[in-house]
Amino acid sequence: MTWTQTLLLFVYLALFTGSIFAMLWWHKRQRKMRLPFGDELKLLRVPGETQITLVRKFDEDALMWMMMAAAAPATIGLLLLLSTARLPKGLQLVGVAVTLTAFIGVFIWAARWFAGRARESNNRYLGYFGERLVAEYLEPLKAQGWRIFHDVPGVANGHPFNIDHIAVGPSGVFVIETKTRRKGAARPGFDDHKVYFDGRSLIWPWGEDNHGLEQAEKNATWLTTALQTELGERVAVTPFLTLPGWWIDTKPSIESRPCRVANPKLLPGLLAGCASTLTQRQRDEVVAKLEARCRNVGY
Questions:
Q1: Which residue among 16, 30, 80, 281 has its CA within the 20 to 30 Å range from the CA of 215?
Q2: Are residues 89 and 167 in the same domain?
Q3: Domain of 260?
Q4: Is 193 helix (H, G, I), strand (E, B) or coil?
Q5: Do both 266 and 165 map to the same domain?
Q6: What is the number of helices (H) and of strands (E) in the chain?
Q7: Do both 23 and 108 map to the same domain?
């Protein structure tokens, strides 16, 4: 195959790929023009709204990302080969070596880049599934007059974030952070399905960290401030961290932090058992503010 034939093949593949992207874009555009309801319709956010949205976005764009990853080393290789063909014969062997090295390097980088995005999407789906699981365990509280909000959006220091769950009921207002972590090999003397909370840190089978504890506390502080700004009075918010699928052994110390840790199965009993001075009026006002914040999902 001559260089001209190779270039023509490359141009054909680029045009074919571009045509696919154009068709997909046009299909999305046409589909949005035929909605059976108005654009003003907004739904409440569901458990894991942020995570599943990003997973769907990756699924929609996966073909495009994969083709771009595949095209990158081929493009680099072709350009370098075309440049090599113009070199003096004595330098063409060096050019081929440089081309092969560049191709392999870009190939490995592109493959790892796409694999990393796929792993990230898989981890997000795991997080979404964990938040759905926690939401199901919180569901019985609704029969007792509780309101449960999921994936509540917020902004702190100009950066958007979300709170996994907020429960509002006779016992008060609770922020619940869900962390769904895979199980792995355990250190000697540790069970691979147990995590210990000593009041300050989480002790996992493989080590210690504060994964989720600080985040739950920051979310509770943010919500307290936001509600005080919106309602004109302070409403106490209690942070919880829940770990789906893990057996949690709690051993609080004298210097215990404000965040509590529990398996999601125990959350309804723990939340209902807390004491609160929250009035019905305050509960209704908090619910109204949270519903307005969470009713923002459009098509």
A1: 281
A2: no
A3: 141-297
A4: coil
A5: yes
A6: 6, 11
A7: yes
Among candidate residues 226, 205, 105, 100, the one with its CA nearest the CA of residue 156: 226
Alpha-carbon distance of 224 to 289, in angstroms, equals 13
**Burial status of residue 88 (CB atoms within 10 A of its CB: 0-12, 13-18, 19 or more):** exposed
Mean pLDDT per block of 10 residues along the chain (299 residues) reads 63 74 73 70 94 93 86 85 82 87 94 95 96 97 96 94 96 96 91 92 92 95 96 94 94 80 95 86 95 92
**CB atoms closer than 10 angstroms to residue 240:** 23
Question: Are 164 and 292 found together in one domain?
Answer: yes
Does one domain contain both 121 and 170?
no
pTM: 0.84
Tokens found for residue 207: 């080590």
Q: Which residue has the tokens 């299909």?
A: 27
From first CA to last CA, the distance across the chain in angstroms is: 50
Q: Which two tokens stand for residue 243?
A: 């770990």
